[in-house]
Amino acid sequence: MFVSLMLLNGESCPSEGTEAFCAYNPLTGKALTNWYPVSPWSEVEFAIKSAARAFEKVKTWPGERFAEFLDAYATEIEDRADRLVEAAHEETGYPVSPRLKDVELPRTTNQLRLAANAARTGSWKRPIIDTASNIRSEFGSLGPVVVFGPNNFPFAFNGISGGDFAAAIAAGNPVIAKAHPSHPTTTAIFAEAALAALEKTSMPAGFVQLIFQMDYEDGEKLVSHPLIGATAFTGSRHGGLVLKAAADKAGKPIYLELSSINPIFILEGALAERGDALADEFVVSCLMGTGQFCTNPGMVILPKSKLAEEFVQKVTEKFHNAPAGALLAENVKSNFLSGIKQLQQAGAELLTGGGVAEGEGYRCQNTLFKVSGSEFLSNAERLQAEAFGNESLLVIADDVKQMVEIAAALEGNLTGCLYTETTGKDDAVYDQIAPVLRQKVGRLLNDKMPTGVAVVPSMNHGGPYPSTGHPGFTSVGIPASITRFAMLQCYDNVRPHRLPSALQDKNPTGEMWRLVDGNWTQADVGK
Amino acid sequence: MFVSLMLLNGESCPSEGTEAFCAYNPLTGKALTNWYPVSPWSEVEFAIKSAARAFEKVKTWPGERFAEFLDAYATEIEDRADRLVEAAHEETGYPVSPRLKDVELPRTTNQLRLAANAARTGSWKRPIIDTASNIRSEFGSLGPVVVFGPNNFPFAFNGISGGDFAAAIAAGNPVIAKAHPSHPTTTAIFAEAALAALEKTSMPAGFVQLIFQMDYEDGEKLVSHPLIGATAFTGSRHGGLVLKAAADKAGKPIYLELSSINPIFILEGALAERGDALADEFVVSCLMGTGQFCTNPGMVILPKSKLAEEFVQKVTEKFHNAPAGALLAENVKSNFLSGIKQLQQAGAELLTGGGVAEGEGYRCQNTLFKVSGSEFLSNAERLQAEAFGNESLLVIADDVKQMVEIAAALEGNLTGCLYTETTGKDDAVYDQIAPVLRQKVGRLLNDKMPTGVAVVPSMNHGGPYPSTGHPGFTSVGIPASITRFAMLQCYDNVRPHRLPSALQDKNPTGEMWRLVDGNWTQADVGK
Questions:
Q1: What pLDDT score does B3 carry?
Q2: Annotated catalytic residue: which of A294, A411, A417, A421?
Q3: What residue in A sits closest to B57 (Cα-Cα)?
Q4: Which of A411, A418, A416 lies closest to A467 in space, CA to CA?
């Protein structure tokens, strides 16, 4: 077997590790041909030191340099689009088109270019200048950032190409990317593109590095290492919380995106007005990508009524009749099966699905559960456990009061949604549920499924614990996602020529927004 | 003995606890007459539930309501200025004038009014509106906040009146204040003023509460309680890290301000140009308030030279000749003595002081240490231990290279300072040391001691771990200090009349700064 190369200290290089792994095609369950190394701690430590040396070089560079790299990288990715799409299709089972080729890859290069633009303009640094006291501050780069990517977005959240990566680089930090083991070949092609872009834009060795796999204990050592600035992790709750404990103990920032069931409240008027359409909309959103979205709607709360019964029946039929998509990996399948077993044990009534589906690869039946509002409230914690995949739980509440109680019993989630009648008939009920749901979710939606995540400044792809580790941060949305990887740097009475360019009287880019004496402006100080 | 009243659920009330404590006059060491209760867990829990009920009421209120309370509170404090100053003088030993009456109390009411203004204007919410996608987001209130105040600022950092308190209230959160046990009477007078302001502005019971003391274990339960939004703590490293561990485990934000030794680099040219003046400036800053400032200069790094020897001699004489001020409490004194013992054991040479001083109360001699740069580097961790009080360590570096190494060996600090010759003779050396020091400190100063902390938007009273728990946050400086106690709340496709006022098309205050389609503006959307 040929064991593939990592990207370490500016070079494609072999591992000295003695273990290796391969990925599997989810559509067939067959092993893929490439093998990838599990790095020993010595290699992880080598990457950390190389990243720290790179940081010493780049920490005073202007944003333009990071922008050049990000733009060049986007182009190198586009040059390899066909190979990336082919590899990702093989490793994830996602359709080539539209998902991989027409949606996720363009989103990924777009994110890199938006991050480049933010690095160039510099407004993400949020410069504040108080002229009377001559105190000035900005967000500055933090140091090497570790990015753990998840299994479900091989491009847009990949540790070496996704949103966390782009944000960490835009802030001027070297990145050590940890590949997700279910799509290593896709990740290796990104590393090749990154290396080309690093060379073309004369970035130091160690500015972007890739490690395919390491032991769990080494992951904990990595995120808590003195030379590491911060970590971003998207993935399972268990894995994330283990890393969080290690990073917290060392006083290192760690940004987590963990599980979320994304509750949907459908109010009575909406159900009467457009119940059929809502059933369609929900099923499409819930089964898209075999339900493997961070913002997949895993729970629907409906008021008890004949209409709700009809909704349940329609959704059950649609779940039953829709083909079962492939799950991303063997362990996703086994976790899914154990998750739905736990929901059953917690009292959820199985409406359809519940087992392995026919066909090659990792497939489980589209699975739908139902519980009453009282049952949910009596066992809320267990009934909120995420079964990552093509599953959802319908909760039939006795009345509005119980819907409010259900909202209050929710854990922190990325999103929460309310569907209401268009002319306002549900407004009084909305006003009871929404304020409770608001405190439980990062993004509150109206009349829209949560699966789309627009890459705009106002986006919050974050939420209260345990959906993330901190309710004030988002992993999508520039510039907010960038400031996670920065430290607040204040300059008190510092001589003008020694100030970083963003804090000098002259606006260095002419486009940078700065808070000068309490007012946001793009002008020079004193103008 | 009469055990004083707490402020719980809108009422002054007695404790059911069986333990009580009193404070001591630091100038005499004598017990003061009032006794204060140690609350059992049942009372802490009662406060939490009361705060949570208050939050349910206020969470949709406009900022104006919180501003009215903050303004009214500032006035109530001013009405009690004489009593507050008298009590604080008795409990801290700080001079009535200028320290307590003319500096700290006006700073405190100013902070409350600045926070009121921020709550009123609403720019702290950082509203972002993207019209094409109709996604809008803002920072919203988080839930009850616990504030632990330190011993060294009885007014400006008091749990029930200081900067953290003001920021948490401005963000619309109820506060549970934990008094510092060395100044409970001062704190009780604040509680009386707060209660009067709560009543005058019709705030709900439980919006501001005060507990004097609780067991350590109950403190951990408090900061990790499901109904608590976040915690702010200013105090010792040990106590702070115990609370941090509990809060981290529960996924609750905690903002810490811990120890800091605030290194000062004096370069050769500055020493030649104005060594005498610098010696004066340093001694005044270091011994002010008996050295009990968060930003007290606890370490000075000088290049080896005859001038440095003269500086050392001058400072030693001044330390020796200056009167020894009182430390805040018996445990501050004992910690100080044990801290200087540890510095000696770590190899620091005692130049003057080192023991208990004559006179009544908690007094230790002004204490100065010296080590060579090599000695410091060989034992950097132990030699950076803070001895909170009137002590400093002079480090004599062999050369510029060693000064850079010393900067690199520093832990995270709140501040770091470089003194250089005025016409630029030290600039080349500055350029070697400053980039290294920059990453170690929250606030970088030139030619200025760090003990002054201006309350302006650009201030960073924060820094890398272990000076605080996160390098991106500041506890002083509005609006940044306020957003710590907020959650990011996004509205996706939400109907216009349901949006919070800050995110509606019309600018609700006319003065609120909002990021609309990438541009900061005070205008209405579409105007």
A1: 77
A2: A294
A3: A435
A4: A411
Is the pLDDT at A285 greater than 80? The verdict is yes
- B420-424 contacts, C-beta under 8 A, 24 or more apart: B420/B267, B420/B269, B420/B270, B420/B446, B420/B447, B421/B267, B421/B268, B421/B269, B421/B270, B421/B272, B421/B273, B422/B273
pLDDT band of B323, cuts 50, 70, 90? very high
What's phi and psi for A302, nearest 5 deg?
-130, 150
Predicted confidence band at B371 (pLDDT cuts at 50, 70, 90)? very high
Class for domain B44-258+474-482, per CATH? alpha beta
- Tokens describing residue A480: 């907010």
Model confidence at B313: pLDDT above 60: yes
Size of the A and B interface in Cβ pairs below 8 Å: 187
Q: Which of A415, A439, A488 sits opposite B473 (nearest CB)?
A: A488
Report whether pLDDT(B1) > 60. Answer: no
User: What pLDDT does residue A5 have?
Assistant: 86
- Chain A, 89 to 148: residues with Cβ < 8 Å from chain B are 128-130, 132-133, 135-137, 139-140, 142-143
pTM across the whole model: 0.97
Q: What is the pLDDT of residues A432-461, one digit of tens each?
A: 999 999 999 999 999 999 999 999 999 999
Q: Could B445 and A494 be called an inter-chain contact, meaning their C-beta atoms sit closer than 8 Å?
A: yes
Contact with chain A for residue B506, Cβ under 8 A: no
Angstrom distance (rounded) from CA B60 to CA B41: 30
- Residues 201 to 240 of B: which have CB under 8 A from any A CB? none
B496 to chain A, any CB pair closer than 8 A? The answer is: no
Question: Using the beta-carbon criterion (under 8 Å), do A445 and B486 form an inter-chain contact?
Answer: no
Q: Tell whether B490 is within 8 A of chain A (Cβ).
A: yes
Contact B494 A445 (CB under 8 A): yes
- Does B442 lie at the interface with A, CB-CB under 8 angstroms? yes
Q: What are phi and psi of B254, to 5 degrees?
A: -140, 130
What is the domain class of A41-121+141-258+474-482 according to CATH?
alpha beta
How far apart are alpha carbons B282 and B287 in whole angstroms?
A: 8
Query: What is the CATH topology of the domain spanning B263-446?
Result: Aldehyde Dehydrogenase; Chain A, domain 2 (3.40.309)
Residue A520: phi and psi, rounded to 5, are -75, 130
Mean pLDDT for the stretch of residues B391-399: 98
What one-letter code names the amino acid at B262?
N
Whether A458 sits inside 8 A of B490 (CB atoms) is: yes
Question: Measuring CA to CA, which residue among B60, B483, B3, B6 is closest to residue B206?
Answer: B6
Q: What is the mean pLDDT of residues B376-382?
A: 97
- Residues of chain A contacting B494 with CB distance shorter than 8 Å: 444-446
Residue A4's pLDDT is what? 85
Domain ranges of chain B: 44-258+474-482, 263-446
B456 to A135: CB separation less than 8 angstroms, yes or no:
yes
Is a pLDDT exceeding 80 seen at residue A500?
Answer: yes
The edge-to-edge listing of strands for the beta sheet with B175-178 is: B11-13, B6-8, B208-211, B175-178, B145-148, B230-234, B254-257
Q: Which residue has the tokens 């990740």?
A: A187
Q: Which residues, including other chains, have CB under 8 Å from residue B104's CB and lie 6 or more apart?
A: B88, B94, B153, B154, B155, B156
Of B133, B471, B489, the CB nearest to A488: B471
Residue B152 pLDDT greater than 60, yes or no: yes
User: Tens digit of pLDDT for each residue in A13-70?
Assistant: 999 999 999 999 999 999 999 999 999 999 999 999 999 999 999 999 999 999 999 9
Q: Which of B59, B458, B513 sits opposite A137 (nearest CB)?
A: B458
Q: Is A257 annotated as catalytic?
A: yes
Contact criterion met (CB below 8 Å) for A47 and A176: yes
Q: Does A253 touch chain B (CB under 8 A)?
A: yes
pLDDT of residue A1: 56
Q: How far apart are alpha carbons A513 and A521 in whole angstroms?
A: 5
